[in-house]
Amino acid sequence: MSELNNRVNLAKREIGRSVIEINPNILNEIKGKNDDVMFFGVKDSNQIPESIIAKLRTDKRFIWHTIDKASNRGRAIDTDLINPVTYRVMTGSSSGGPINLLKGINEFAIGTDGGGSVLSPAMSCQLPSMIGAGLDVLVKNKKNSTEGFEFTGSIGVIGKNVHTLKTVMECITNTNFSYANEKKKVIIPTKNSVTLPDGRDMHESVMKYLSKLDGWNVMIEEIDMAGIEKRERGIDTINQAFNKKNADLIVTCEGPVDFYGYGETIPQCFGRVGMQLTNNHGKYLIRSANMCQATAITIPIETIASGIVIIAKKGIRSASYAIELAEKLEASIQMPEVWKRYFVKEPSFTGLDFN
Questions:
Q1: Rounded CA separation 190/202 (Å)
Q2: b/e map of 142-161 (b: 16 or more CB within 10 Å)?
Q3: Which end of the chain has fewer beta carbons closer than 10 Å to its terminal beta carbon, N or C?
Q4: Cis peptide before 300 (omega within 30 of 0)
Q5: Could you tell me the CATH number of the domain that includes residue 246?
Q6: Phi then psi for 186, rounded to 5 degrees?
Q7: What is the CA radius of gyration of the chain?
Q8: Considering Cα of 61, then 67, then 68, then 74, what sign does the dihedral take?
Q9: Could you tell me where the beta strands, DSSP code E, fall in the chain?
């Protein structure tokens, strides 16, 4: 009960910011839950199927704690919130969920992703995430992007580690992701085809991490990914990798997200200055993965607001490959100790009261 009180008190401090509402029935719902129950939040959206929320809500491992703020009208940035890691305007549209993880309110957040609305905010906050488009874990209705692309959004999970993503997605899909020692074909960018906003070459950044993996049965092929920051080019690249190259996975390194510029289409409609505002936003295939109905996972790296992106073609088998790779990569990446102290270890509520 002391843990519940601590979480609720932390959430109360964020009401009107990253928290829309605290579950009023949480005292009754936590009865019968596991001792190590994981608290979670759900994006403030009517597009998440009630069946998914019910499945999580009735599982003894999880307790629905908060409704998390979303950006206004699904915008790719949320001008109401500040990113606790980068001090920039928060990435949207599943904006409140990752902030509530960083503040110790929840262990995971459920969001929706159309053009990067789960993957991007998670990466901007140095958190892992997973979307289930390739597993048919979808929102209720289709919509159009700001560029005019029709798509169906997917349900995604943001967590503090890959194991949490796997556990939650297994619950949602009634699936056990199992690994087989089969050879996987992985597509990565060619050298010098993509330069990240901070000057890093995407190819070298990807290989820095893939080269650390021992005993992973993989065949790597490189393709030119120039221009993948544009959604149409990103969609073409993903489709080419899966349909023509017969790849199992695509791996990129992306970010810093919304650090040097803000990746949103609206300012681009307002002339040269608006275009300049959106340059160097650090978003690449995370903007296109859902629109290709792929499974996608992000894993944070030591560079601020940056991470490895794994995109898997449709189906459980490829999704299992992606999770296996994500776990291996996560184990090889050492985050700074100060990060763990401020954002990973669970905080206690130490505010003032009138008692």
A1: 8
A2: eeebeeeeebbbbbbbbbbb
A3: C
A4: no
A5: 3.40.190
A6: -120, 130
A7: 19
A8: positive
A9: 19-22, 38-43, 62-68, 77-82, 89-91, 108-113, 129-132, 138-144, 150-159, 184-189, 218-223, 249-254, 295-300, 307-312
End-to-end CA distance of the chain: 19
Length reported for the chain = 355
Task: Say how many domains are in the chain.
Answer: 2
Block residue for tokens 């997605």: 169
Whether residue 14 contacts residue 102, with contact meaning beta carbons closer than 8 Å, is answered with no
CA 305 to chain centre: 12
Residues 12 and 123 in one domain: yes
| Cα distance between residue 218 and residue 198, in whole Å | 29
What is the signed CA dihedral for 203, 180, 241, 170, rounded to 10 degrees? -100
Residue 352 lies in a domain: no
Q: Which two tokens stand for residue 36?
A: 């190590």
Q: What whole-number distance in Å separates Cα of residue 303 and Cα of residue 328?
A: 18
In angstroms, the CA 262 to CA 75 distance is 11
Closest CA to 135 of 339, 316, 5, 304: 316
* Residue 196: domain span: 184-334
Residue type, 148: G
Q: Concatenated DSSP letters for 266-303?
A: GGGGSHHHHHHHHTT---SGGGTTGGGT-EEEEEE-SS
DSSP 200-220: -BHHHHHHHHHTT--S--EEE
How does pLDDT run across 105-142, given as a tens digit for each residue?
999 999 999 999 999 999 999 999 999 999 999 999 98
Burial code of 95-110, b = ≥16 C-beta within 10 A, e = fewer?
bbbbbbbbbbbbbbbb
For 266-322, the pLDDT digits (tens) are 898 999 999 999 999 999 999 999 999 999 999 999 999 999 999 999 999 999 999
pTM given for the model: 0.96
